[in-house]
Amino acid sequence: MSTTAPLDDKTLTELREIAARYPEARSGLLPMLHLVQSAQGRITPEGIEACAAILEISAAEVNGVATFYTMYKRHGVGDYHVGVCTNTLCAVMGGDAILERLKDHLEVGNDEVAVQRQGDSHTVSLEHIECNAACDYAPVMMVNWEFMDNQTPESAVQLVEALRAGHEVSSTRGPKLCTWREAERVLAGFPDGRADEGPSAGPASLVGLEIARERGWRAPDPTATPAIEAAQKEESGA
Amino acid sequence: MTDMLTPVLTDIWDAEQSWKLATYVDQGGYAALDVAFAMDPDDIITAVKDSGLRGRGGAGFPTGMKWSFIPQDNPKPKYLVVNADESEPGTCKDIPLMMGNPHVLVEGVIISSYAIRANKAFIYIRGEVVHVIRRVQAAVEEAYAAGHLGKDIHGSGYDLDVVVHAGAGAYICGEETALLEGLEGRRGQPRLRPPFPAVAGLYASPTVINNVESIASVPAIVKNGAAWFGAMGTEKSKGHGIFSLSGHVQKPGQYEAPLGITLRELLDLAGGVREGHQLKFWTPGGSSTPLFTDAHLDVPLDFEGVAGAGSMLGTRALQIFDDSVCVVRAVLRWTEFYQHESCGKCTPCREGTWWLTQALTRLENGQGSEADLDQLIDQCDNILGRAFCALGDGATSPVTSSIQYFRDEYLTHLSNGGCPFDPARSTAWAGTEVSA
């Protein structure tokens, strides 16, 4: 893991910039904490003090918020933070088996960073996560909060090995993966200009639409709606 | 008679770069904006009321009525907040919607804000979906550049600013008042109601909070009329909705249909349950809605139909489990989720979800006794209706409904001295070798 550098002037300016987006500055706290993680790799005491000073609230209040939300980390994570969904549906579809295989393969427990072996260019951490709203692609994994759909224990092992080796990996329906700290910067509200990568939708998102296209099904024709309305009135005896 | 599937919000998803402003405008996007600006804001509220649109985030409250609760004589600024914190287990519709069609959400935000006379709107997206946040950020940026956002939009004299806000991982922030706490930079714990957000919401100002799909449904209603929307769906549950099929079905995915479609019809489109297996249980609207079984295949999936059969339409998150799945294991896992996500504010939920987890763990391991089932029911009685918000109520749904329909399976765990199911048989890769 890289050592934590002090917050620089650019980051402090950006923290103030976030607070200024809102009618009341404190609303910026969640994205500000994302920026702290991007700059320092975790929620640091220094980051908490900086947010508290900018928002003119106590460090304890900031701390209370930072400990409430699961995306905020008090300890470092890997360059690639790997999540395995083990909420019921994904667990049943194989998420439990994937998590077990990865724990075994990476020799880590939950929310731990795997040892960086000689030759690994990047680090990986592992966490079991809750439903990430991609159930039609179960079992689902996330890497730095990008979708890795329809995984198996074998594909999961290949994935973490590719990440450790520094190979280019893309989300199954999104962009080329960036590091965890780069992703945290997007969450802080500083776009990285990569919205146009990846498809419009993954295959499962399109199954209903494809059936509708095949069968010529569509929403009612708006120009025919007055007729529908009249028919309904007639039906109800109005 | 409308078609079985009615793509409206999903219609653009198969277009090349469907998330771009140019693609959206090509397909008629942002045309509803000028229709709206030619109307009095109150008339838009009336049109949305007349359409019969009900909240698509689970509760099903009439959207137009929610808007009409905003006290326009209150001198404070009004706010629109979009709830894009989609986290209910099984629910996976808003994420692909924002990924594939973010501009319909932005157009909906503009029209809805104009209707309630808000000049500032927030889109609160759960943090764990970076690419969705990129797409919505980019859509907002494009809308500003095209003059759909900012000062004097389309020369109407109306100003609107939109902030895209990322959450940080908390299921409870899907609860609207907890979401407001998060948006105010605090721990996401629900607020006492009343006062309702319409009176004292964000910064104690009048605030409307709507789900992504509700807001995204507004442009087509304004453009095509309330009657067009009402031509889809059933008498009290009008319009189109995205139905999300997941789990043991041949073709899991998103199906946009008029409310009132049945699971039998949807399964027919989805190629049925996994080959060699039977449907065992399913959720109509996420894990917080009581389970259904194969006896409920013909229940109309609208608000009244599902409620009449003892559950809730929720978010139309149809998680399908076949006969390879242990219902006790499934319910235990959901309960562990509620325990983890309980915000800790109220005792019935904070303590109750822990007790439920302990009792269920014992049962799944074949320990304990039949009396534990009655104790579970008793614990649920002490949570349901006594928790501060709907999280606690929702936590009891899988427990009580599973005991109602699968009491014998719980008992088999006891007589068997453990779980009689092999978890390997339920995996996506179990394939056909387990069909015997």
Would you mind describing this structure in some detail?
The complex is a heterodimer of chains A (238) and B (436). With 238 residues, chain A is α+β, with helices and mostly antiparallel strands. Chain A has 9 helices and 5 strands. In chain A, strands 2-3-1-4-5 form a 5-stranded mixed β-sheet. Chain A is globular, with a radius of gyration of 23 Å. The termini of chain A are far apart. Chain B contains 18 helices and 9 strands. Chain B has a 5-stranded mixed β-sheet with strand order 6-5-9-7-8, with no helix packed on it. A 4-stranded parallel β-sheet of chain B has the order 3-2-1-4, sandwiched between helices. In chain B, β7 and β8 form a beta hairpin. The longest helix of chain B has 27 residues. Chain B is globular, with a radius of gyration of 22 Å. Classes of the chains: A alpha+beta (238), B alpha/beta (436). The interface between A and B is large, with 90 and 104 residues.
Topology:
The complex is a heterodimer of chains A (238) and B (436).
Chain A: H1 9-19, H2 29-40, H3 45-55, H4 59-66, E1 80-85, H5 88-106, E2 112-113, E3 124-129, E4 141-143, E5 146-148, H6 153-165, H7 180-187, H8 207-215, H9 225-235
Parallel strand pairs in A: 1-3
Antiparallel strand pairs in A: 1-4, 2-3, 4-5
Helix pairs in contact in A: 1-2, 1-3, 2-3, 2-7, 3-4, 5-6
Chain B: H1 21-26, H2 31-37, H3 41-51, H4 63-68, E1 79-84, H5 94-100, H6 102-116, E2 120-125, H7 130-145, E3 161-166, H8 176-183, H9 197-200, E4 207-211, H10 212-216, H11 218-224, H12 226-230, E5 240-247, E6 253-258, H13 263-269, E7 279-283, E8 292-293, H14 303-308, E9 317-322, H15 327-341, H16 347-364, H17 371-383, H18 390-416
Parallel strand pairs in B: 1-2, 1-4, 2-3, 5-9
Antiparallel strand pairs in B: 5-6, 7-8, 7-9
Helix pairs in contact in B: 2-6, 2-11, 3-6, 5-7, 15-16, 15-18, 16-17, 16-18, 17-18
